[in-house]
Design brief:
Length: 213
């Protein structure tokens, strides 16, 4: 499948057509949060067990960069139950397959910043899943440089979600750029753009669930 087929960044993609009418809203747990931040429209997946969920990024390091989180908010992997840990990484497995397919990727970065000293910026366990293609980070010095980006200001997930919160309160323009980082020309996306990606990814993940069952 082409990376542009149904991709919400394509000018032909719309969430207002008949496709949307066939998909009821996700049944999210009440008061779902990512750390201190409420999350709703950017969530594209909730596991069958209701123990894990996936959400899109405000400012992904590469196209398709998403987060998988446990529903229960704890900061460290060791604080998850066996059931939560199993469900979290099974969800990573399923979502990873979808991301490789829809973004025509040949590899993935799967990473956990487990604690503040490991670069964690939101005190809620989350797994970064990033589709990769050969040469996709050559402009930054090579593929491994994405780890430096993830640990640096441009990969600061907490700051990105604070930006969303400020958008909702009308304090900043949703096109305002982050001032720090060598990749600061990457603009944060609007909530509408994230909703489109979340809707599209949800439909693609559900296809893989059907195939697996």
């Amino acid at each position: 499948m082409s990376a542009n087929a149904g991709d919400p960044t394509s000018e032909h993609h719309s969430v207002s057509g008949p496709e949307q009418l066939t998909m009821p809203p996700l049944q999210l747990p009440p008061n779902l949060k990512f750390g201190p931040f409420s999350v709703t429209s950017q969530v594209f997946h909730i596991s069958n067990t209701k123990l894990s969920y996936g959400l899109v990024n405000l400012k992904p390091l590469l196209p398709g960069h998403i987060l998988i989180c446990p529903v229960r908010c704890v900061p460290r992997l060791s604080q998850l139950t066996v059931a939560e840990t199993t469900d979290l990484f099974n969800t990573v497995r399923i979502i990873s397959r979808t991301l490789e397919r829809v973004y025509s990727a040949g590899a993935l970065n799967v990473a956990v910043q487990d604690g503040v000293d490991a670069g964690q910026s939101v005190p809620h366990v989350h797994v970064h899943v990033i589709p990769r293609k050969k040469g996709d980070y050559d402009h930054r010095g090579g593929g491994d440089q994405i780890y430096d980006a993830m640990d640096g200001e441009e990969g600061n997930v907490g700051r990105a979600f604070l930006e969303i919160q400020q958008q909702r309160r009308g304090r900043v323009n949703h096109r305002k750029e982050f001032s720090a980082g060598p990749d600061s020309d990457r603009k944060p996306r609007s909530e509408e753009e994230m909703q489109k990606e979340a809707f599209w990814l949800r439909s693609e993940v559900e296809k893989d669930y059907v195939e697996e069952s």
